[in-house]
Structures are given as C-alpha cells and as structure tokens.
Amino acid sequence: MVLSELSIKNFRNHTHTSIECCRGVNFLLGNNGQGKTNIIEAISYLCLTKSFYAGSDTLVPKFGEGMFEVEGRIVSDGGKPFVVRVAYLRETNEKVFMINGRRVPTLSSVIGKFPIVIFSPEHGSVTTGGPSERRKFLDMVISQSSRAYFKDLLGYRSVLRQRNRVLLDMKLGRQGGNGLLAPWNEQLAALGSAVWWKRHTFITEFSPVVRSVYSHFVDIEERPFLEYRPLGGREFPATQEELSAVFLEILAARENEERRFGTSLVGPHRDDVALTLDGRDLRSYASQGQHKTFIISLKLGEFLYLKSRCNETPLLMLDDVFAELDDARTARVIAYIERVGQAFLTSTHRNPIESWDMNRTEYRTIFIDGGAVAEQKTVVHA
Amino acid sequence: MPRPSDSLQRLIEEFTRLPGIGRKSAQRLALYILKLPAGEVREIAGALLDLKEKMKYCSVCWNFTETDPCPICSGPRRDPGIICVVEEPNDVIAIERTSEYRGLYHVLGGCLSPLEGIGPEELRVRELLPRVGKGVGEVILALSATIEGEATTIYLTKLLKPIGVPVTRLARGISVGGDLEFTDEATLARALEGRVAV
User: Fold this and answer.
1) Chain B interface, mutation test: which of A104, A175, A240, A263, most B Cβ atoms within 10 Å?
2) Quick one: fold of B64-169?
3) What does the H/E/C string look like for chain A?
4) If pLDDT is split at 50, 70 and 90, which confidence band does A197 have?
5) Cβ of A187 and B147 within 8 Å?
6) Can you list the domains of chain A with their CATH numbers?
C-alpha cells in the first residue's frame, strides 16, 4: 500500500501540517526537535490506532488543545482507495477511527488492515534488552499478520490478570477455596497454548527470512538464528491439543510454587527468544555493529514477512536509525528498501541523497521546521 | 454558558447515572419532563417508587418479582425438572422472549471475576446446589461468552457433575441471518466445534 497524503491537526508540535508523499523513499528532514518523528507517530495512529512509543494518548494533542486529528489517504496494493481518519478527544479520552467515512466498531479490528513496520532507535533494545522487548516484537509482528493471534493474546492477558488475582488472594489468605483456580487454568492453557503455537510457527518461518536479509548487509559469512523454546528442555509437541495438555500438566506441577509467589509462573508471558550469531548468544558476544545489522535484519524481515502474510506491502518507517550507521552501510540499507516499497526516513542530514549515493531517480524531501512544513518537493536525481 | 437552575441540574445529574444515558440524552429527558403536565410527572414518579417498594427477589430463583415465589417458579405449566442458570434478571427476560423455554431459572447475580472481588460467595451458588438435588433432570448453563462467563461455566460444571445431574451449556456460533464471510474466526471456530448432525 501507499500513503499518498497526510494531514494532521493539533498533533504534538504541529498545528496543521499537510504533506504529499511519493511512492518511493520520502525523507523527513530537519533539525532535532522540529517534529519529524511526530509525523511518523501520526502515521502509526493511522495503521496501529496508537502511538508506536507513547503509552497513552493524553499527551499527544498539542499543548493547550483538547483534541488531535490525523487523516491519511491510502491506496492498497490492489488499487483500492481509503480515507483513514483518527480523532482523539482528551476530555472524554475517546478515540474515533473512521475508514471511508464509516466509524469502525472496535479499534482492534483495524490491526493488520494497514500493515506498518516502524524502526526507531528504541528498537535496539530488541537485541540488547530483556525478554519483554523480544516478546513485544513478536506480538507486534504476529498480531499484524493474524487477527486470531491478537485476539488470543488479548484473551490470554485477561485470563492471566484474573488468575493472578486468585493466586495473590490465596497467598495473602483472603480466599483459599480449592476450586477457584481450575476455571482459570483451563482457559489459560487453551489461550496460552494457542499463543505458544503461533509464536512457534512464526519463528520457524521467520528465522530464514532474517538470515536472508542479514546476508545483504555483511560480506563475511555470518549466520543469524532465532530460537524459541517455551518449554525449556522439553520437546515442543506436534499438535496444539498436545501442547494444551502439556500446559495443564506444567500448571499442576508448579501449583504450589505459584501459590507461594502469588502469581502465574507458566506461560507465554514468561517467554524469550534466543538470538544467536553462528550459534553464539548475541547479547553476550556480539559487537555493536553486529547488533545493528541484526536489528535491521529483524525489522526488514518483519517487512517481508508482513508483506507475504497480509498480501499488502507495509509502510516502512525508519526513524533516525542512520545516525549511528556509517554512510556505506546506510547506503546498502537504502538501496535495499527502495526496492521493496514506500518508506519514510527521518534524518538531520541536509542532503541525504548525495551523501548516500542513491540510485533511483525520484525522491521526495520534506523539510520540517518548528512543527510545520518549510518546504516539500520531489527531487529528480540525475 | 449560563447555569441552568439547580433543580433542573439535579435531575440531569440523576439521569446521567442511568445506564446508557449520556449528558445530552439526560438533558433531553429532563427538559421533556419539565414540559409534561404535573399529573403525568406524578405518574412517572409513582411508578418508580412502586417498582422499588413492591419488587423483591424470588426466594427460589433470585429473579425480581412482586410475589414470592415468582410467577415462573410457581407457574403450573413450567417444568421444574430443568433449571437454566443465568447471570442477571435481564437474561431471564431475553430467554422468556423466545417462548421456547418451559423450565425454571436460577439468577446468579453476575459471574466470577476475582479482579472485581467476585468469588462464588458473592454469587448465588450456595442457593443453587440444594435446588438441583430433587428431581432435576438438566441444568442449562446460559452464561456470557466472555472469559469470566466461561470461568463460571467451568466452575459450576465441576461443582454440579459430581451430584450426578446432567449439565449442558448454550451452543456458540453463527447468529441467525449472519453471513459466514463476516463471522469472526473465534466464533467460526466455536461453530465448527459445536456442529450438529443433520
């Protein structure tokens, strides 16, 4: 899909900004603090119904304003036009999402309709940070490609919250009835094994994609790998029914421990994915450069995976990710992305096209200054 | 904006507390009542008070009623061999509307939700058990298709099965007149699971 126009009102430091976008690489240029990332954030509202980094909507309206609006024109790969509009009212904390003039009943129904891949400096923690960062990455990619997964995940989280309360009540001696855990165990196992199963399937398909992207960015032979072992040393069952039975078995075996801790100790919320390079753990052994190549490969792998899964080319957002890369590696990344679809890049470079030695003939440069567009033009590169 | 009078404001505030009534609807209702003749307003007020004074819980099924036991529990044409367990009195009204059900009810008063502090003690579970002992041939669990409703269904099933009474639950699937194409995956999966021979 392609985003052809974007208009935002009272969004962060933008009062009213309209941009037109080209089908290829769009550069959002300007100094720090001018509002480049806010454009990326506005696009994330159109695709994900929420900010890609802020946990809440309340601080997004421009200072002193009670609401913000984002409207975009999107054309799908099949040529179908969409006008997508998000409006948020701070007073009632209400978010209205409209597609072609019709309000969508639930925000979650939008997820995956307009796929997007966002890569910003914070995503570096996927390879360097703790397990929760990698779970977040998994959930974002799989949720966009499978609504069933997203639903299972939301259901799992609800059951988990209820079950944790039962365990906590038991620990504190507030309620001790023995039958109280069972109703939640069955649902936890059913939804939890569905999440495990889909994560497992995903990693199996995704790991080779990452390896193939990775090979574009390094000259030497290095083999990245993603390994998922939610059951520890135990072998992963062949069917989801078996997996669900194993889940219940583990719950039974660890019930006393869970009661002692007052919280759930088994399930997808405790998962991790091991990232390795030539069989060695990335976090303990890899250099800074290897980390960066790995995360870029994960992100571009996400792009390729979503493209094939959603039958729709995702939008690719690269927020300030070239600041720490050398020009040669940046050029390789850009050469790669300009082949795959529409991309938005933020940079403080004044003239990225020349510095990065680009090949294509047409780009769009959009200069952002103080929450407004200072200049936007299509650059024809000889 | 000039402030409307206190008594009008008070009524608007009271209406906003009702379920499904927002600020604007509350205002419209209050102004409508203001325009009504005094007699009609008295009728409405009387009906509200009457409801509160006369209605009580049925001591058998815990539905709202004016007489105890309620007309359903004491109805000569109802089958006392079937008990349908529901969450709220609303659900009784919904099932009665079908005119398909001839058995009795048991209103739990909600479903299990540890986060809201609702355990079996807060529901009318203890009141249900003595009812299923005597000559009951089936207990139908008609609870919401939410995780809390599901947990309650599992809890009650584990409780009732050992007594030896047959326990059933409502089928889940495609709504009547619903398009297969627009049915969400979870519902469709349930419908497949619960398919019946024809």
Assistant:
1) A175
2) Dna Topoisomerase Vi A Subunit; Chain: A, domain 2 (3.40.1360)
3) CEEEEEEEEEECCEEEEEEECCCCEEEEECCCCCCHHHHHHHHHHHHHCCCCCCCCCCCCECCCCCEEEEEEEEECCCCCEEEEEEEEECCCCEEEEEECCEECCCHHHHCCCCCEEEECHHHHHHHHCCHHHHHHHHHHHHHHHCHHHHHHHHHHHHHHHHHHHHHHHHHCCCCCCHHHCHHHHHHHHHHHHHHHHHHHHHHHHHHHHHHHHHHHHCCCCCCEEEEECCCCCCCCCCCHHHHHHHHHHHHHHCHHHHHHHCCCCCCHHHCCEEEEECCEEHHHHCCHHHHHHHHHHHHHHHHHHHHHHHCCCCEEEEECCCCCCCHHHHHHHHHHHHHHCCEEEEECCCCHHHHCCCCCCEEEEEEECCCCEEEEEEEECC
4) very high
5) yes
6) 1-115+312-382 (3.40.50.300), 125-298 (1.20.1050.90)
Average pLDDT over residues A149-153: 92
Q: Could you report the per-residue pLDDT of B88-142, keeping only the tens digit for each? A: 999 999 999 999 999 999 999 999 999 998 999 999 999 999 999 778 999 999 9
- Comparing A209 with A91, the larger pLDDT belongs to A209
Q: Give A-chain residues touching B147 at CB under 8 angstroms.
A: 155, 158-159, 162, 187
Is B7-54 in CATH node 3.20.20.190?
no
pTM beyond 0.95: the answer is no
